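Table S2 (continued). Query chain:
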Amino acid sequence: MSGMYLEDFEVGQDFTTAARTVTEADIVIFTGLSGDFNPLHIDEEYCRTTQHGTRIAQGLLGASIASGLVSQLGHLRGTALGFLGMTWRYTGVIRADDTIRVRITVKEARASASKPDRGVLVRQLDVLNQRDEVVQTGEWSVLMLTRPKAG
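Corresponding output:
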């Protein structure tokens, strides 16, 4: 296991992921995978008449890329037991050729009272574009292993 245990996280601790440029191909592939054929994602002529002026990525594509970027940090590799849930807001849009990264802040790391081998990690995630604008934000909760006791 190379991941961090629950006790390795401190409230207020910050991490930032690597950056990734969202491509037109990402949007097209996600459209096919998700079945989300909203004109905002596939019809450039229509989008020229909208406030965005061009096609935009699906909100869930941004959240999915954010999940991958966070995963690449390796913090939860082998120590996460399961995803418990999230709150999520879309505060901006992601366009093809935008470069995004994720800023992570630990909000809570609490051990379970009934099961000492696990606990809950709550992290604030902010997806930032190349202009440092927060385009998606929310909290993700994960069930985590605690450090094994010696003995």
